[in-house]
Amino acid sequence: MLKNLKTAGLAALFVGSAVGAAHADKLQDVLDRGYLIAGSGSTNAPWHFKDENNELVGFDIDMLRLIAKGLFDDPTKVEFVNQSGDARIPNLATDKVDVTCQFMTVTPGRAQQVEFTIPYYREGVGLMLLDGGDYADYEALKAGGSDVTVSVLQNVYAEDMVHAALPEANVDQYESVDLMYQALNSGRADAAATDQSSLSWFMAQNPDRYKDAGFGWNPQSYSCAVKPGDQRWLNFVNSVLHEAMTGVDFNTYAASYQQWFGSELSPPQIGFPVEFK
Amino acid sequence: MEILQTLEAIWLARTAILDGLWNTIQISFLSILLGTILGIIVGLILTYGNRAARFAIRIYSDFLRGTPVFVLILACFYILSVVGLDLTAFQAGVFALTLFCSSHVGEIVRGALQAIPKGQTEAAKSIGLTFSKTFFSVLLPQALRQILPTWVNTATEIVKASTLLSIIGVVELLLAVQQIISRTYLSLELYFFAGFVFFIINFAIEKAGRYVERKVAIPT
Questions:
Q1: What is A2-114+227-276's CATH topology?
Q2: A112-135 b/e with 16+ CB inside 10 Å = b?
Q3: Beta bridge partners of A226
Q4: B219 pLDDT band (50/70/90 cuts)?
Q5: Cβ contact (<8 Å) for A90 and B74?
Q6: What ipTM did this prediction achieve?
Q7: Which of A35, A165, A264, B216 has the CB geometry, 3.0–4.6 Å to A77, for a possible disulfide?
Q8: Which residues of A fall within a CB distance of 8 Å from B74?
Q9: What are the φ/ψ torsions at residue A57 (nearest 5 degrees)?
């Protein structure tokens, strides 16, 4: 909530500037410049983070590289601007970045300040279990009622969030992700509830130790965002993302998805376009 | 073991940590240096300036001291770029911390100068010293003894405030450590490590301050 307020305040502060410096043709500007200036973070695996070689990697980073590939036929022609979550909207408004892909949840409020692309991932809350533990899946957890303890990141809404899926479960809140997973490992908790993407990544990192309970809730869409008022640029980024999920760049998207979320995507059905089914 | 795992994570990321540390040191050093120079000017004007100058600098100082550093950093990064002055995140951050530091040093200097009895300035005048001679030979050496302890305090505050530059994307020590945490999940261990390194930096500043304090102390 505090974070939202801060972001909203910041954004409000810079809305004035957004109107003043309306750019005519961002696509042409970027092509002329010869590289993309892309906004993302560096502290959230598997979205945007530094690997052992101190290289920026992640699913968001792959999306931005796809845009660069679309522009210059070269995914390396990107200059990454490291930004905190709070800086996402102001950096677009003040033209410090061409596009931001930083696990940005689409909300109507934000959509008044930036223009969102089509979503490239649907986030939600999931439940992770120990493989071979007391509870086999979501149904078992639900049947367990108040015997079940769920570890979760400390948050004002944590209790309600868990109870939306498991109304009777006990909720133990932890200060950090490692402690939350630790609780599951040590048996203090029967399941860990957090973002599906974090769970998928953690399970991909530690194969055969954990399993997904198979239930997700609290959906939210992750989209890239651009500065409002440049339809051609928005269309371009949309085309790149759309074709990554359904067209010529599907293999790149699927490889990235497999790398960061550990599961294989089946190719879109050939024939009638999937999006109109 | 957790400790071994932490040490290994730190060792693996040593270049990233050293880069972050170097950024923290650069930011702190530049901001404290420039902020102190600017702050001395602010303090002099607040003490000896004419009415109009005093009033203008009073507003400057009160405004900066009354604003969170966080807001100052955002303002320097975003509002200046709207005006057309496109500073890099590093420059904008150092600029913000310099302004913040100058307002604090300004008040420290003013307090120290005003604490010196008027009679000393009058005595200096009566033996024919110019203002600059009075300032450097009579007032400053005495003021320095007052200034040093609080100046050290301000300097350590600036070192700690440098972590706020991460919000505009400057990879200083804390953000560098956060980047390792996001990969390794060793949050408590690595935050403790970051805290320890900041403590070392500030401890060094404090020791240096003590040393100078001893040098300028009145021999007993």
A1: D-Maltodextrin-Binding Protein; domain 2 (3.40.190)
A2: ebbbbbbbbbebebbbbbbeeeeb
A3: A115
A4: confident
A5: yes
A6: 0.81
A7: A35
A8: 10, 90
A9: -135, 175
